[in-house]
TrEMBL record:
This is Serine/threonine-protein kinase PknD. Keywords: ATP-binding, Kinase, Nucleotide-binding, Transferase. SMART domains: S_TKc. Its EC number is 2.7.11.1. Residues 27-321 form the Protein kinase domain. Residues 1-21 are annotated as: Disordered. InterPro entries: Kinase-like_dom_sf, Prot_kinase_dom. CDD domains: STKc_PknB_like. It comes from Neorhodopirellula pilleata. One of its GO terms (molecular function) is ATP binding.
Length: 321
C-alpha cells in the first residue's frame, strides 16, 4: 500500500521552468512500479505541476510492435475519454523520441481488491475490520458505476476482476485496465487472451492469476470471462461485463472463486455449464446474507438474456440490499 505525498509550501511557490523539455524528458525521478509482458508502469515527478504521476509505456522489445502500439493508444484514449469518478484521470498522451508511445495518469495510492481479499482469506483482523460485507459490496457498486458510464459511451471493459479494482487510501474506488476494452464500431482485432497460471492457484490466498498479453485469441482473464467470451462471440455487449461482475461479487462475498477448475479448459467448461453453489452456502463462516444469492445467480446466468440487462439494473439490485 502506498501513501499520498505531502504538499509542502516550497513545492507550490517556484516559478515555471524557463523551458519545458519535450516528451518524457519533462519528468524526473522515474521509478518502476510494475511490469507486464509488453508494458511497464513508472512513477515520476512533474516539475511543472509539482505532482507525482504514473507513466505507462511499452517495453523496449515491444516498442515498435504496431499491434501493441495500437493497443496502448486505444487504452490511453479510452481511459482519457471515460471521465468518471471511478476511472483514473489521464493527463497526457504522447510519443517520445526514445521511449515511444506513452500516456500520463494520476498516480493513485492504495491496493487492489484482490489484495484485500487475500488478507481477509488469511484472517487478517485489520482487513476484516476495514472491509466488512457492506464495504465490499459498496466497492463492487462503485466499479459498476464506472462500467455503467462506460457502457453508455459504447465501451465494454471485458476484463473485470478484483485485481483491476483499486481501493484508495481515502475511500476512492477506481476501475483500471481498459487495455482489452471493446469499443462499438471498431474491429475486434482478434486481440489475445491473457495467459494464466490457472493450475497453480487452488485458493484465493495463493498467487493471483496473471494478467497477460499474448498467446491466445480471446480478450479477458479466464476465471472471470463470460460464456460468450469463451466461445468467441463477436457481438458481446454490456451483459458480458455483468457476468464478470457476478463472478467478482461471488468472490468478494465467499472469498472463493465460483468456477475455478484444474485447467483452463475445465474452468471454461465450468463457466459454460456448471451450476454453482450459492455464496452463502459455499462460505457460511462469513455470514453472507442469503439475499445476495439471488443477485449473484441472476448475474451469472449462462444466457445473456436471462441476466440483468444493464449494469444499472445490477446496481439497483445491490442497492436494494
Amino acid at each position: 500500500m502506498t501513501s499520498e505525498p505531502t504538499i509542502i509550501l516550497s513545492g507550490t511557490d517556484p516559478d515555471l521552468p524557463k523551458s519545458v523539455p519535450p516528451g518524457l524528458k519533462r519528468y524526473t525521478g522515474l521509478r518502476e512500479m510494475a511490469r507486464g509482458a509488453t508494458a511497464q508502469l513508472q512513477s515520476a515527478f512533474d516539475p511543472v505541476t509539482g505532482r507525482t504521476v504514473a507513466i505507462k509505456k511499452l517495453l523496449p522489445e515491444t516498442r515498435f510492435d504496431r499491434r501493441e502500439r495500437r493497443r496502448l493508444l486505444r487504452e490511453a484514449r479510452v481511459t482519457a475519454q471515460l471521465q468518471h469518478p471511478n476511472t483514473v484521470p489521464v493527463y497526457d498522451i504522447g510519443e517520445d523520441d526514445l521511449e515511444g508511445v506513452y500516456f500520463i495518469m494520476k498516480r493513485i495510492s492504495g491496493e487492489n481488491l484482490f489484495e484485500v481479499l487475500k488478507r481477509i482469506a488469511r484472517g487478517d483482523e485489520q482487513a476484516i475490520h476495514d472491509f466488512p460485507i457492506a464495504r465490499r459490496l459498496s466497492i463492487v457498486v462503485d466499479a459498476c458505476q464506472a462500467l455503467a458510464y462506460a457502457h453508455a459511451r459504447g465501451v465494454i471493459h471485458r476484463d473485470v476482476k478484483p485485481e483491476n479494482i483499486w481501493v484508495g487510501n481515502f475511500g476512492e474506488v477506481i476501475l483500471l485496465d481498459w487495455g482489452v476494452a471493446k469499443v462499438w464500431g471498431h474491429a475486434d482485432d482478434n486481440e489475445p487472451i491473457r495467459e494464466s497460471t490457472l493450475a497453480v492457484r487452488p485458493e484465493i490466498d495463493s498467487a493471483q492469476l496473471q494478467t497477460l498479453t499474448g498467446g491466445g485469441q480471446r480478450p479477458g482473464t479466464p476465471l472471470y470471462m463470460s460464456p460468450e467470451q469463451i466461445v468467441g462471440n463477436r457481438t458481446i455487449d454490456e451483459r458480458s461485463d455483468v457476468f464478470s461482475v457476478g463472478v467478482v461479487l461471488y468472490e468478494v462475498m465467499a472469498i472463493r472463486e465460483p468456477f475455478r477448475g484444474r485447467t483452463i479448459d475445465e474452468t471454461f467448461e465450468n463457466i459454460r455449464h456448471k451450476e454453482i453453489q450459492p455464496p452463502s452456502e459455499r462460505s457460511p463462516q462469513y455470514g453472507i446474507p442469503k439475499a445476495i444469492d439471488a443477485i449473484v445467480a441472476k448475474a451469472l446466468q449462462k444466457r445473456p438474456e436471462k441476466r440483468y440487462q444493464s449494469m444499472r439494473d445490477l446496481i439497483a439490485a445491490i442497492d436494494d440490499l
